[in-house]
Design goal:
single chain; 232 residues; mainly alpha; Arc Repressor Mutant, subunit A; Four Helix Bundle (Hemerythrin (Met), subunit A); 2 domains; 3-stranded antiparallel beta sheet; 3 strands; 69% helix; 3% strand
Amino acid sequence: MPDTIERETTEGAPDRGPVRKRAGTELLAADVHARLRTRILTFEIKPGTRLVEDEISASLEVGRTPVREALLRLQGEGLVSREKGWVVESTDAASIDRVFESRVAIEGYATRLAALRTAPADLRELMALVDEMDGFEAMSRAALNQLNRRFHQRIVALSGNPFFVEMHERTQFHYWNMRLPVLFTREQAMMTNEQHRLILSALSCGDASAAERHAREHVATTHRIVRDALDG
């Protein structure tokens, strides 16, 4: 029987059967959305991949309704688009400025909040990441990128604001989606990690204003490096 919205009985009271059916569908849709979103954000599902509702339904063993609702949510987040079928978004390098504008705003204020909420254990975790990044010359670019992502993701999470976390994930998706052919020089890598230490120092002092300033400067520095490489 197809999913329905709540019906009214002859006495005007809602029919609880369809409500339970609907609630179940929404829970399934939330689960499908979370699973697809994770696979898209981690690039397990590559940009440009076509998403077929029937195939997703079969692989996840759910009906088409929760799959369609999940895809609509992903479309609203800018992760998929619909044109003759569903497809995972590909981000054009021309969007680089908008991506960094978003990162400055999100990471800047998230870091301000993190300075007010970071515990000693969190600082030790962040310091370990920064120390590990000092050894960038002995690691692959992919390994360094992973450490860098973990550092910034952790700070945004420490803001305690799940909306910032969600928005940051989206900016990260679009940034890495572009597959930018940019290799930082030794000097640039050292400079950006020194900026990580400045952010960390402000967090350890609980200096919200300095934390936000250093975070914004760090994102702006990365933006300049990427922009100069692309323009060159």
